[in-house]
């Protein structure tokens, strides 16, 4: 991948990080209540040669922020980044910018764009699905980098861009973000975004009204065509045929195609071979299941936007327990914050437990100690019997510790019970194992990934 995207991506993440830290400092300085009223609604829009642009949707808030807090924001930000020269706060209302002193240059947020692109066929875009709102971590960094590249390139960098991953991991979000950014850079460009189902629906309607010429005509002048969830056309032969022709025609004219699916082109079922191979021609970027770190960053980012305060330990609890996808994380957070603001209570772990009982149960498959021991032995190629043996060489002791750690975290067994199941060991041995594994997970990235992988295999 070129250094150019890496540079943009780095800069982007860097600014997000600076903004997060500026907000953290201000929050500590002015206290939660004031922070929530004035800073939560404020978001980072762009940065260009020393000028940071922030936006807010309420003019009263804007005036107040400028009068009371402008200098504070500026001085805090300067501490983070000496290149910052000024801070501007603009008003963005109903999705459109009203007061805007200077927003030339690379804008990170596309909230001001009208989203009714190509009204005839394109579906609406969600204005919240921007690059700014997309939190990047290891599991989605390739997909994110590829999306940025497509959005920023004047030429077609790879065709198609094929994004795939499980449900709720951000495919649609990234596609909308690309569309917003392309339109922001050049409003003249025609972008069509639609789900594969909608494509099929329009096509079948066209067939019925014997109007396939008009159907095709809609795509003829498009610059960028995005089809979401292409797995839905599997087995639908005539739609696939039509899609294949549209696809080829657009690729031949050097128009950008962006496709998403729940599986890689090779693994998509019910798709013709020629289609499958064609889909894999460009760049295939997958979004992996989220790791703990990314789950926590997403929760922190979403928490900032809420009206209520969610303590850090609750966020960590959620990030541990809800491993499926971002949609479920969002759902959990919304549910506890709605409850807390309705009953006017502070959020705590106990409340979270109660409110999310159903979610917490469904997002985890029940595993038992024996399954953990079996999976861990297989994974590290040691004998199942060594899980309870007295042998203490590192190659055996480490997997055993990992299995104890997983038993503590994935089952509801007590420490003494776990000790007993591992060759009648004392519960302090289990505590030691849990601490050791936690320590290694924090220190050693590849170790951490290994454990994460085991958890994923056990829970799915
Ligand atoms: P998919 O299309 O892969 O099923 P979506 O793009 O619809 O998933 O994402 C589901 C929800 O999770 C959306 O509200 C989206 O904004 C949010 N989301 C997904 N990934 C991220 C991310 N990395 N950062 C922030 N929000 C995300
Ligand atoms: Mg989707």
Main features:
460 residues, alpha/beta, five-stranded parallel β-sheet, four-stranded mixed β-sheet, 9 strands, binds adenosine-5'-diphosphate, binds magnesium ion
- Stretches where pLDDT is under 50 for at least 5 consecutive residues are 95-119
The biggest sheet, with number of strands, parallel, antiparallel or mixed sense and barrel status, is: 5 strands, parallel
State the strand order across the main sheet: 6-7-8-5-9
Element-level helix/strand string:
HHEEHEEHEHEHHEHEHEHHHHHHHHHH
The assigned structural class equals alpha/beta
The count of DSSP E runs of length 2 or more, i.e. the number of strands, is 9
Helix content: 40-55%
Radius of gyration: 25 Å
Beta-strand fraction estimate:
5-15%
**Average predicted local confidence, pLDDT:** 85
Number of alpha- plus pi-helical segments: 19
The bound ligands are: adenosine-5'-diphosphate, magnesium ion
Q: Which shape, going by the Cα principal axes? A: globular
N-to-C CA distance: 32 Å
């Amino acid at each position: 991948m070129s250094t150019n995207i890496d540079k943009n991506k780095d800069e982007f993440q860097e600014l997000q990080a600076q903004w997060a830290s500026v907000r953290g400092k201000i929050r500590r300085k002015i206290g939660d209540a004031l922070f929530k009223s004035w800073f939560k609604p404020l978001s980072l829009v762009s940065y260009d040669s020393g000028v940071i642009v922030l936006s807010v949707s309420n003019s009263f808030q804007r005036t107040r922020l400028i009068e009371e807090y402008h200098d504070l924001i500026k001085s805090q930000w300067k501490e983070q980044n000496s290149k910052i020269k000024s801070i501007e706060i603009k008003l963005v209302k109903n999705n459109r910018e009203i007061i805007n002193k200077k927003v030339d240059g690379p804008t990170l947020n596309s909230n001001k764009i009208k989203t009714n692109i190509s009204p005839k066929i394109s579906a609406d875009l969600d204005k919240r699905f921007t690059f700014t709102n997309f939190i990047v971590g290891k599991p989605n960094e390739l997909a994110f980098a590829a999306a940025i590249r497509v959005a920023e390139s004047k030429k077609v960098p790879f065709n198609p861009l094929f994004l795939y991953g499980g449900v709720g991991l951000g495919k649609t979000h990234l596609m909308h973000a690309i569309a917003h950014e392309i339109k922001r850079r050049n409003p003249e460009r025609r972008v069509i975004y639609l789900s594969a189902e909608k494509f099929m629906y329009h096509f079948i309607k066209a067939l019925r009204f014997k109007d396939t010429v008009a159907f095709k005509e809609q795509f003829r002048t498009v610059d960028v065509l995005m089809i979401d969830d292409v797995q839905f056309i599997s087995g639908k032969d005539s739609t696939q045929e039509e899609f294949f022709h549209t696809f080829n025609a657009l690729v031949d004219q050097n128009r950008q195609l962006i496709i998403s699916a729940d599986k890689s082109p090779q693994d998509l079922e019910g798709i013709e071979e020629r289609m499958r191979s064609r889909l894999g021609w460009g760049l295939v970027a997958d979004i992996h299941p989220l790791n703990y770190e990314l789950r926590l960053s997403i929760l922190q980012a979403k928490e900032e936007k809420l009206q209520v305060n969610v303590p850090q330990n609750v966020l960590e609890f959620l990030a541990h327990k809800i491993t499926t996808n971002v949609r479920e994380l969002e759902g959990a957070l919304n549910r506890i914050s709605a409850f807390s603001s309705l009953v006017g209570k502070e959020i705590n772990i106990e409340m979270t437990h109660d409110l999310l009982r159903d979610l917490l149960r469904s997002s985890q498959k029940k595993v038992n100690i024996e399954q953990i021991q079996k999976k861990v032995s297989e994974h590290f190629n040691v004998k199942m019997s060594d899980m309870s043996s007295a042998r203490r060489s590192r190659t055996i002791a480490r997997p055993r510790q990992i299995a104890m750690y997983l038993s503590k975290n994935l089952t509801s067994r007590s420490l003494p019970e776990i000790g007993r199941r591992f060759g009648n060991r004392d519960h302090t041995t289990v505590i030691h194992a849990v601490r050791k594994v936690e320590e290694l997970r924090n220190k050693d990235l590849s170790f951490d990934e290994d454990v994460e992988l085991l958890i994923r295999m056990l829970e799915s």
